Amino acid sequence: MYADPVTFPAELLTLLRGGPKLVALTGAGVSQESGLRTFRDAQAGLWAQYKPEDLASPEAFRRDPKLVWDWYAWRREAVKGVRPNPGHYALAEIEKRIPEFTLITQNVDGLHRMAGNLNVLELHGNIQRVRCADCHTFAETWDDDGESVPRCRECGGLLRPDVVWFGEALPRAQLEAAVEAARACQVFFSIGTSGVVQPAASLAFAAHNRGALIVEINAEPTPLTSKADYVFHGKSGEILPELVKAVWP
Ligand code: OAD
To answer: What is the distance in angstroms between the CA of the first residue and the CA of the last residue of the chain?
Structure first.
């Protein structure tokens, strides 16, 4: 069912007021209004000649670690100074109102925690963290001479961002918790994600198969749209705060 973003169906509002077990899965669209490019947007400037898919992989790092390190340094810089937007804050408000709320994000920007969400499962890691590609030790600081990829202080291995690359497994505990929450929830929100990257994309379908009500908020239709019970097309930074106001006036 399609609905005008500002007129939410009464049955949805009533359901949410009842405090159902709720899961929200977010993607890059949620951070778009904070000024971050979505994953499938064109790259800017120097990076315009590369596809993100060709840089975010173990093969790319093996082939040219400096290129991959520099790309992440550029993205890390873009995230610095970026603030959560009203969509992030609305999700933090929902967490306060709904006793069993799980936020599952594919975003690596850390903005959900910054907005105040506590129960966050980061499926694809966090761009601010760095770890050794060999011994997996995390590093909070590193020496970057700008010439070569910084090295691990423990074993001398190359440092890499603590994000999930194409072809890599997701962090097991986070994925298991996400699958469990999706299977157990009564309402599943899919927000600002193109829904084409697995296994995150399958979470909505797992919830749907277990009878959960599916709500999609996205600027455009996605592969999930035809399965959703309610679809709100528009900006999550506008729709989510409106929804919170409508549910808890
Ligand atoms: P995408 O860039 O694939 O999709 C962004 C989605 O957000 C699209 O469906 C847009 O229509 C929608 N969108 C854009 N602006 C919006 C707004 N203001 N409000 C609501 N929706 C908006 O990003 P993801 O789906 O997050 O993984 O991509 C998933 C994963 O693909 C990423 O986490 C990344 C990549 O592979 C890894 O790097 C492992």
So the answer is: 24
Q: In what order do the strands lie in the sheet with 138-139?
A: 138-139, 125-132, 159-163
226 membership: H or E segment, kind and range: none
Helix (H) or strand (E) holding 216: strand 213-218
Is 136 assigned a catalytic role? no
* 185 close to 214: Cβ distance less than 8 angstroms: no
- Compute the distance between CA of residue 105 and CA of residue 174 in angstroms, rounded to an integer: 10
- Pick from 152, 163, 160: nearest CA to 69: 160
Question: pLDDT for 214-245, tens place per residue?
Answer: 999 999 999 999 999 999 999 999 999 999 99
Ligand 1 pocket mutation, candidates 75, 191, 193, criterion most atoms within 8 A of CB: 193
Is it the case that residue 118 has pLDDT exceeding 60?
yes
pLDDT at 73: 92
pLDDT in tens, 88-112: 999 999 999 999 999 999 999 999 9
Q: Which of 40, 165, 174, 191 to mutate to test the pocket of ligand 1 (most atoms within 8 A of CB)?
A: 40
Distance of alpha carbon 198 from alpha carbon 196, whole angstroms: 7
What's the pLDDT at 1?
45
Dihedral of CA atoms 66, 69, 75, 78 in degrees, nearest 10, equals: -80
